[in-house]
Each structure stands twice: as structure tokens, then as C-alpha cells.
Design brief:
Blueprint (H helix, E strand, L loop, with lengths): L3 E3 L8 E5 L3 H8 L7 H5 L9 E8 L2 E8 L6 E6 L1 H10 L5 E7 L4 H7 E14 L15 E5 L5 H8 L10 H5 L4 E5 L2 E12 L4 E9 L8 H16 L4 E6 L4 H9 L3 E13 L5 H15 L23
Length: 319
């Protein structure tokens, strides 16, 4: 893709912006804060990388990376870098009409609000663990309890568990097959589970998530058991040497449980729902046209447009 030079005004920092498929370049940038950038690093994995678009902004005021994905359970955006660079990237490539903001820094929010309606923002905290800090839980399970790895055949039981509090979920057998999930059973019933969002053995990174305990079985340490089992499997059998998760820092029991397993707190992270303000993408298309003229001194025809929610030549659908 043609490089763009972008600055909305003479006072705004200027950035060279390009879409890239250069894994080495991306990894070099993202390794600066592996915990914060874990989702982006994980998507460098073959099988995930094919459902992504990565943009990089570089300038004297810093740099930034934007990742947009169409895998999993819906379109998602991930942002890493300086706020000014994120401003330039969001102005030119705001992505699908609506989706989920899965990684951003608190200082990105004022920038994002220029281009999106930001709804349901969650102030979260990244935590990370390695084999050097991990401490597997060895407490006995409650009476009649058992723990085992979940398989694709368990998908209905998993969705039933995750839907316990009234919000239906639609995980598929492929989510379990391509991830790592463990469940705790009491009297034959699945009552707690933990899984993964990303497993990337070639990059050595995994993201743990989907930790949930049935309301009637909370307070018994089951979430700690299943999270411990998933983490141990990733570290010892899946080739992932660096594991992260995201937690609400106000959820003190969860934070204590993760600390007990050896997870260390890291950067603040914002998650939210995004709805693009420029419904038809006219503003961003115009800005790309202006940016290309500024970079090359000539009018360049766009060849990289895509329908909202679907990457060019790819398939729409889930994150």
C-alpha cells in the first residue's frame, strides 16, 4: 500500500502512515510493552494474521499501531502507541461502522471520541505471568468436584454456563478447538470455566479470558482452579512463554486470585464499544485523498476501500 503523510493542520504532528504485512516490523514495535500489546502480538500468528489489517504511523512525535480484526465474535480494533499517532490512524482508517475496542490506553479516549461514539468504556488492568512467576494452585476442589480440559463437544454446556446471568453467548466448537479451555464440574455439572482469546505459540504469547463461575458456586476458588489449569497448559504444553489477562482493578477477589497464580499488574487498558461517527466513511476517504496528495504531489486513486465490517478479499463475521 502507498505510504501516506498525514497532519490535519500545520500545528498537528505529521506522520508517515502505511498498511503493513511485515511481521518483523510489527513485532519490533509491539515488543516495547508486550503485556499491553499482547492481543496484537498474538494476531501475528498464522491462522489469525490472515484475518487482520495492520497500520503503522511513524513520526517525530512517536509512533502507533492499529489492528482491525474480523475473527472471533465480532469486528474488533486494537490500538498501541502515542495519542497523536492514534489520532492520525483513526482519522484515516476508522474501520467498520461498529465494533469492539479491545485494547486502547486511557489517553486514547479523547482522540477516539472525535471519530467514534464510544460506549460502555471499561477501565481495566493488564496482568501477565511467565513460567518464572507462575504458581499453580494446589488446593483441593470442593467435594464432588473435578477439573478437566474442555473439548468442542462441551460447547453447549459452556454456552449454558456463560449465559447463566441472562446474556446469551454463541461460542462455537471452533473457539474451543483453537483455544485452551478448562472447566470445573460439581456433581457432573459444569460450574466454572476459563479459556483463551488468543493462543500464539510461534510468537510465544497467549491471552487468557472468559473466566466465569456459576453464581451458586462462587467463593469456592473455582475460578482460580480453572485459570491455573489454563495458564499451566499454555506455559508447559502450548509453547506460550508469556501469558496475559485483563481484569477490572476494582474486582479485588479476582485480582488477588490472579496475583496468587503469579500474575503481575501492568498497564491500564480501556475496552469499549465503538460506533463510527462518519456513517458512510466519506470524511476518512477525503482525508486519505488529501494525505496522498500531500505525500506524493499528485492525485492517487483509492484501491483499498472495503465494506464496513468486511476486509477486502476476506470474510466478514466474527472476532
Amino acid at each position: 500500500m502507498t505510504d501516506l503523510t498525514f497532519g490535519q493542520s500545520a500545528a498537528m504532528p505529521r506522520f508517515a502512515i502505511r498498511e503493513t504485512r511485515d511481521r518483523a516490523l510489527l513485532q519490533a514495535i509491539l515488543d516495547e510493552d508486550r503485556a499491553f500489546a499482547a492481543y496484537l502480538l498474538g494476531h501475528l500468528e498464522y491462522g489469525l494474521f490472515e484475518r487482520t489489517r495492520f497500520w503503522v504511523a511513524e513520526g517525530e512525535q512517536g509512533h502507533g499501531v492499529m489492528l482491525q480484526t474480523w475473527g472471533g465474535v465480532g469486528p474488533a480494533t486494537f490500538l498501541v502507541g502515542d495519542a497523536a499517532a492514534i489520532d492520525a490512524l483513526s482519522a484515516l482508517h476508522p474501520g467498520p461502522f461498529q465494533g469492539y475496542l479491545a485494547t486502547a490506553a486511557p489517553e486514547h479516549l479523547p482522540v477516539l471520541q472525535r471519530y467514534y461514539r464510544v460506549e460502555g468504556a471499561l477501565q481495566m488492568r493488564r496482568m501477565s505471568v511467565t513460567s518464572a512467576t507462575f504458581e499453580a494452585v494446589d488446593d483441593p476442589l470442593p467435594d464432588d468436584g473435578s477439573l478437566r480440559a474442555l473439548t468442542p463437544r462441551d460447547v453447549n454446556a459452556l454456552n449454558a454456563l456463560y449465559s447463566t446471568e441472562g446474556t446469551p453467548t454463541y461460542y462455537t466448537s471452533e473457539h474451543i478447538a483453537h483455544g485452551v479451555y478448562f472447566g470445573a464440574y460439581v456433581r457432573g455439572m459444569l460450574v466454572a470455566a476459563a479459556g483463551t482469546h488468543v493462543v500464539s505459540p510461534n510468537v510465544g504469547v497467549a491471552v487468557v479470558g472468559n473466566v466465569f463461575t456459576h453464581p451458586a458456586f462462587r467463593g469456592q476458588g473455582l475460578a482460580t482452579h480453572v485459570t491455573s489449569a489454563v495458564t499451566e497448559d499454555l506455559l508447559e504444553r502450548r509453547g506460550c512463554a508469556f501469558i496475559v489477562l485483563t481484569v477490572d482493578p476494582a474486582n479485588e477477589p479476582a485480582v488477588r486470585a490472579y496475583r496468587r497464580l503469579g500474575y503481575k499488574p501492568g498497564s491500564a487498558v480501556v475496552e469499549a464499544r465503538l460506533r463510527r461517527r462518519d456513517v458512510f466513511g466519506i470524511g476518512s476517504a477525503l482525508r486519505r485523498w488529501v494525505a496522498r496528495r500531500a505525500a506524493h504531489g499528485q492525485n492517487i486513486e483509492f484501491g483499498d476501500e472495503y465494506a464496513p465490517g468486511q476486509p477486502p478479499g476476506g470474510e466478514g463475521g466474527s472476532r
